[in-house]
Amino acid sequence: MSVRVGLAQLNLRLGDLAGNAEMIVAAYDSAVADGARVVVFSELTVTGYPPEDLLLKPAFVEGAAAALARIAQHTGEVPAVVGFPEDSGAGGPVRLWNSAALCWGGAVRGVFRKHLLPNYAVFDEQRYFVPGTEAGPLLTVDGVAVGVSVCEDLWGPPRTADASPDDGGLPSIVGGDADTSPALAQVALGAQLLVNLNGSPYRRGKQADREAVARTRAAALGVPVVYVNQVGGQDELVFDGNSFVTDASGTVICRLEAFAEQVAVCEVPLAGEHDAGGGVVAALPDPLEEVWQALVVATRDYVRKNGFADVAVGLSGGIDSSAVAAIAADALGPEHVHGVSMPSRYSSEGSQTDAAQLAANLGIDFRTVPIEPAHAALGGMLEESAGAGPVDAGSTRDSAAADLTDQNLQSRIRGVLLMALSNRFGWLVLTTGNKTETSVGYTTLYGDTAGAYAVIRDVPKLLVYELCRWRNRQGDGERIPQACIDKPPSAELRPDQRDDQSLPPYELLDPLVEAYVEGDLSAAEMLDQYGADPDVVHRITRLVDIAEYKRRQSPPGPRITAKSFGKDRRMPITNFYR
To answer: Is 265 in the same domain as 144?
Structure first.
């Protein structure tokens, strides 16, 4: 015996209650027309995930309930399992359940309420929701009892999913006293199939963890597992879809495409059955392709969902701006990307020609706006006021303060010009700072942080190089000029400047930043683990700490690692701990 399950992997528009309802109804009709006997959607489908403090607005919750009622009214004999925020009727701000509505025959026939509310990493569900306590109701589909749960409920043990072992740590816990998953009680009540609604954001390698957890659950409980996730970008988060089904032995028998909307039907065999057709098992992307797709989808959705069509990118001829321009061209089409070269007296001829070659390779608009007139004028104004004008080659006034002032001045001029072009033409400005630079404060506030979206804010420097090399191997020609990849990294804000004059090599710096930012190691622990020069370790950790105020004022960017800046890492600005 088997059950034909529809998996609806949708790119929802957060807060668009009417629009999401239309998408849900269309996906339901498509799956039913394809023979589905139950259609499963993602977590908080009606609102999109995560709705954050919209959940504190009573009118928003009421609107979501009204949208759910319209969806339920549309259903026929085939059930739809739809996520929504449910008002518990309790007083106070934390009054909601994170629920899954069981809809058929024109009405909501039952509701499952999420038990386990994650409150780590980017998740903040205990701010809004109270936990459910009932394992049921079970849904009956063609005589088969189906247990419904929501996201964290499948994992069960109270721990941080993103920091867990690849298998979620489940083998030693499943069925024991520490196992808090409602799936156990559902199977005890007679569930022969488990479906799980998810709002699971992307990070590198997470799909392997998800599938390991589902396989472990299925094999331990002897029932198939259906896992449905949403897809698309939402501010700092990007959702990769990758919805899948395991049979009762834990074998993946269906997987939807990564980073793509898809509605598919999978023939799911029950325990002891092995002759069902299953479904298409989409291949998992190459690890670098996966990151590139995440950045492309995140950029496309941030731009378009916020009402923009075109973007502007400052092109320096360096690796970071090249990567951002290439991602933007893939996301939006080259006709919607405008590259702006803004050379100063320190810009090398090679960097200017590399920027022009990049634009030609990508087929994007390219324009040059020299900053030297503004640089000279503002430097002169500062000279009169504070003796802090531009530092020319051969100048005797070479103090570090004057040098840094002049470097930041150039960056801020470029930020002003990009924002002026944004105002003039309605372009959204993409910033180009990578995670390594953002970590140690090597981004100028109101300069290269000026913009609306920081595409590679969570991408370490060495990974930027890997991504560019990967993109050049994709068979459509050299997108990023090899010269941009080969040249030593430099901001070109003073004569003969190179990054390695003020920072350790990225081969050392990236692991140190990862350990401090993502691993939460102390300087002492980093010294034990990496054996690096103590002066280097203490300097890097100090740079990360004192740059917190810059990051608070910088634009959001997509999360691809286990811990990004923003809602994922909340450090005090005023901080004396070392």
So the answer is: yes
